[in-house]
Specification:
Length: 485
């Protein structure tokens, strides 16, 4: 019967267990050998042999018994220590060592074969575990989902590269820190699956959070999976607007085409009628006879001057044609948004780009703050975004002649952040600023911000607008990857 450590120690204290297993075998072997030897010595004592021969035989038998007993003890010790060494090697993860079963037979051979089979099975299992661990590490490293593991005290014990990129922290910087460092202190107390919005370096991001639990050495720990769905939502929103735009464009164009055509036809007819009426008036003034149509004759037969009527009709039809053309151009601008070309990226200096853009504006109220920085992007598209944002800032500061627009940029790991701050009226309705067709400008079409954000999304970046905290005004946050991709 196997005794636990506590019971074994108690037995030792009581004196009931004080002999090792090999010494017990030695005693049994000696007992088995000495008992027959005692009977043999008794027989030799009564046999008629010389005393010298009797002593020699007794000594030889005694040495044989003791040698056999100690040999048994030695073989048992060697086997146990060999098995112990094999088990120790297995515990250390070395499964290449095998027990020798070629020279032995019987139960020991079966034991060694079973032991070798166990070692081989553990080696295969260890190989499979290592391969799966490598596969899991590669998936964790490459997956876009941010993964964070925390212990029972809500301290960070794991962050994959996606989480490092999302929170702009390296794992070795926050290892062992509380989860509140990342602003996720409330996540572990909420439901397992939820869509939420939180700030990462002053930028609000909408994410899907999923929490789960796992056991490690009997300790319960938690995993937090964070999927950045902001880009996905923007793409779904853009596709929805594109589908709506295609339907609207089809229906509106079907109406605009005949309206524009009829307007042009009616304008030409009116011009011709005006010319005809002018000729008739000239003939009447010269005393010539001309037939006047009923439309040009009053009830009492008097002639009416239709010049003013023709002018009004021509002006009204011109307005109809102009508005139809304007609406057509409006739709064309939105079609450009839906057919935005892919960025043609090149290396260029962001500082030089911003300095060259100042020539397009009244640069006395624009301040640049940043170091020379080489980025990889589509220079023309990025310039279009910056021009649009600066124009918005200037229009927001029409009532503040002393306002200043500050443009600063900096590199943070593998991204570049560009901030455009103004001192204008600020954002009154932040929920609709990226909604197509929505605008607060008299002559705006509600596409500039949507167009700008889509350009940055195509670059793998983002655009966020918010009101300033330090003073009245708004700030546009541009985030772009700086690496070659």
């Amino acid at each position: 019967m196997v005794l636990s450590d506590e019971k074994y120690q108690m037995k030792i204290k009581q004196g009931r267990v004080n002999i090792s297993f090999e010494n017990q075998l030695l005693r049994i072997a000696l007992l088995i050998g000495l008992l027959p030897m005692a009977f043999l010595f008794y027989a030799l004592y009564h046999h008629e042999l010389s005393i010298f021969l009797k002593i020699m035989l007794f000594f030889l038998l005694l040495v044989t018994v003791f040698y056999g007993a100690f040999l048994i003890r030695k073989k048992v010790i060697v086997q146990f220590r060999t098995s112990a060494n094999l088990i120790t090697a297995m515990q250390a993860g070395d499964h290449a060592i095998r027990a020798n079963h070629l020279e032995s037979e019987g139960a020991l051979k079966e034991f060694n074969q079973v032991f070798n089979g166990l070692s081989l099975a553990l080696a295969e299992q260890q190989l499979i575990s290592r391969e799966r661990q490598i596969l899991l590490d590669k998936i964790t490293q490459q997956i876009d989902v941010a993964i964070i593991a925390v212990d029972k005290n809500s301290h960070i014990i794991l962050m994959n590269p996606a989480a490092e990129k999302l929170f702009s922290y390296r794992f070795d910087e926050v290892a062992g820190w509380p989860i509140s460092t990342l602003g996720l202190q409330d996540v572990l107390t909420h439901e397992n699956r939820q869509v939420t919005e939180f700030e990462v370096k002053a930028h609000k991001k909408k994410v899907f959070i999923h929490t789960d639990e796992y056991l490690e050495q009997g300790e319960r720990k938690k995993l937090i999976f964070i999927t950045d769905i902001q880009t996905l939502l923007h793409e779904e929103e853009r596709q929805a607007w594109q589908k709506l735009l295609r339907v609207l464009s089809h229906e509106i164009n079907n109406s605009l085409t005949p309206i524009a055509s009829l307007s042009d036809t009616l304008i030409r007819l009116i011009v011709n009628q005006k010319a005809l009426a002018t000729e008739q008036n000239i003939d009447e003034n010269n005393g010539s006879v001309s037939s006047i149509s009923a439309n040009n004759t009053s009830v009492d037969g008097s002639s009416i001057d239709n010049t003013e009527l023709f002018d009004d009709l021509e002006e009204g039809l011109a307005v109809i044609a102009e508005r139809a053309q304007s609406l057509n151009e409006f739709l064309l601008r939105y079609q450009e948004f839906s057919c935005l070309p892919k960025p043609e990226k090149t290396l260029f200096d962001l500082t030089n780009l911003l300095k060259s853009m100042l020539l397009l504006f009244d640069d006395h109220n624009i301040r640049l703050s940043g170091q020379p920085l080489i980025i990889y992007a589509d220079e023309k598209q990025l310039k279009q975004v910056l021009v649009n944002l600066i124009k918005n800032s200037q229009q927001a500061m029409l009532a503040n002649n002393k306002g200043v627009i500050t443009i600063d940029w900096q590199q943070n790991d593998d991204i570049v952040e560009i901030n455009i701050c103004d001192q204008g009226t600020g954002i009154s309705n932040s929920d609709n600023i990226f909604v197509p067709f929505y605008t607060t400008k008299v002559d705006g079409c509600g596409i500039g911000l949507v167009f700008s954000r889509q350009i940055l999304v195509n670059h793998g970046g983002s655009l966020t607008l918010a009101n300033r905290d330090d003073c009245q005004g708004a700030v546009a946050y541009i985030v772009l990857p700086i690496h070659l991709s």
